[in-house]
UniProtKB/TrEMBL annotation, chains A, B, C:
<protein>
    <submittedName>
        <fullName>Enoyl-CoA hydratase/carnithine racemase</fullName>
    </submittedName>
</protein>
<dbReference type="InterPro" id="IPR029045">
    <property type="entry name" value="ClpP/crotonase-like_dom_sf"/>
</dbReference>
<dbReference type="GO" id="GO:0004165">
    <property type="term" value="F:delta(3)-delta(2)-enoyl-CoA isomerase activity"/>
</dbReference>
<dbReference type="Pfam" id="PF00378">
    <property type="entry name" value="ECH_1"/>
</dbReference>
<dbReference type="InterPro" id="IPR001753">
    <property type="entry name" value="Enoyl-CoA_hydra/iso"/>
</dbReference>
<dbReference type="GO" id="GO:0006635">
    <property type="term" value="P:fatty acid beta-oxidation"/>
</dbReference>
<keyword id="KW-0443">Lipid metabolism</keyword>
Length: 223, 223, 223
């Protein structure tokens, strides 16, 4: 399950040592740790990473198969988490330590910046191959962070990008060796940890308003 | 007139050996061949190219001059063809063999990818010079495929870009010699020919929803 | 105060030799000179630059502090000037001679092209540091000219970019030495000075319709 390490002012969100799929419990855990990040007194910045072969392998298809009647509320929760990270009122960077597939890749895209391990792991949107089209919110999130050419190359092909290819296309902002990955990510946000959260949150809400609206509108009636 | 060559699973749409302007008959021909592409059983991918000096020289101004009263329905048909290619449910690539001007350039932009002949031919949006501003749909189509800097450089200047300049700016994804052009384009989509058409079509409809809406809304009342 | 030099067909708008902040009088002066540019008979193109250490240091915070009750109409006027430059019906380029901060940077972004002095001066959006979030119109303007990665890097960090860094990120289209700056900017628009103003204005209005709408909608009731 997700854990948080305090390397003040940088907080390292560890998504886990497994496939780190978006199960309801896992999302609850991530939300609780994001509460800790946002509520931390004084400067704060977020590095999100994981241990092992996966950053995150995306939707929890096994849980979904067992709870088909809850598909819409599940998608709503996934998109709510993505919208929250997209507009988190602290500087954020994903340290992509391994495979980032589907919603796992979207979670990385929701961060302000991305650094990817250079030697192993794939960044991939497999939607075109697994016959799960992007929701409007998920597409808007990805497209809000990529050039049109990078969006077409990654969203319509199912192609798996290793670190150097992901960097060349602009899916990530940089690459690093496995032992330098978290440090390279840390260096991008540590100098920014002192920003006003109200201001930074407002800036991201304004910049990504269209994607946030699409992510929060899943067609699920309000309770 | 347009022709189709079956190099299964890749289908090569040949726009013709003339200026390949968007006459009503030519558009009918292209639509009929796109029907064949989409209806082909089994895997399919589209390479669009032409013979001679032109990929396409754009709107059929001569036909328009003789049918001024049909301007709106003509524009509606041009935009309908562009919207169809933009969301075609198979992988698509334009092999730009020669001049791609105006709507000819837009047709190339509507494809998922573009490869341009390196040694001859120009990619050009002459709208700023011929006093025909882009319609909202045409502008949205082009901007949905380019970085803002590339959109300004190509849409406000009337500049003619040879292959290497077009590649440097990102108007096309690559260049090739004249004898390797179709093969270079083919190589980009052949590995993708097996994608589900329903899924790929849905992905493109979602990614380019704003441009499609603008292209399909030409102010012409529905019949 | 702003001045205009006629180097026909190029008109050089000199923003001043001070900090060139957006005071009401300064904006009145710029608008009057833009009238001269647009009304000039025959071909015309605009180079905007300044003398000294600043291109423009942005909002006139001193004036604002003394006129707090006029904040909304002030913002409306700033955004109106930005919208006007964004859609000016002649080719435009900013020759960024020195610091371009906040609204000063936005004014540069509103031009079709930007060339920046290579050796001195910073391009900076300090909003994240001075606790003034971007208005929706200002954010839309900047984002209409930048890749998503460049928008995040410049709008969420408060980072100051020297010329080479600004060029590498795409904030500006080129750099030049101090003595070649205006000539380098001039060379980008002089060949374009003969475009039809009606056509070029219509093209920019269409391309940047979303940003223009956001800039012109400041929540201030019409008089």
């Amino acid at each position: 399950m997700p854990e948080l390490r305090d390397d003040g002012p940088v907080l390292v969100l560890d998504l886990g040592d497994d496939e780190n799929r978006f199960s309801p419990d896992w999302m609850d855990g991530v939300h609780a740790l994001l509460d800790t990040v946002v509520d931390r007194p004084g400067p704060a910045a977020l590095v999100t990473t994981a241990r092992g072969r996966f950053f995150s392998n995306g939707l929890d298809l096994e849980w979904l198969a067992a709870h088909e009647d809850r598909l819409l509320t599940y998608v709503e929760r996934v998109q709510g988490l993505l919208a929250r990270v997209l507009t988190l009122p602290v500087p954020t960077v994903a340290a992509v330590n391994g495979h980032a597939f589907g919603a796992g890749g979207m979670l990385a895209m929701a961060h302000d910046f991305r650094v990817m391990r250079a030697d192993r792991g794939y960044f991939c949107f497999p939607e075109a191959d697994i016959d799960i089209p992007f929701t409007p919110g998920m597409a808007a999130l990805i497209q809000s962070k990529l050039t049109p050419a990078a969006a077409v190359a990654s969203m319509t092909t199912g192609r798996r990008f290793g670190g150097p290819d992901a960097h060349a296309l602009g899916l990530v902002d940089g690459t690093a060796g496995p032992d330098e990955l978290v440090a390279a990510a840390d260096a991008r946000v540590r100098p920014l940890a002192g920003k006003s959260r109200a201001t930074l949150g407002a800036i991201k809400e304004t910049m990504f308003a269209a994607a946030v609206t699409a992510l929060r509108d899943t067609g699920v009636p309000a309770a």
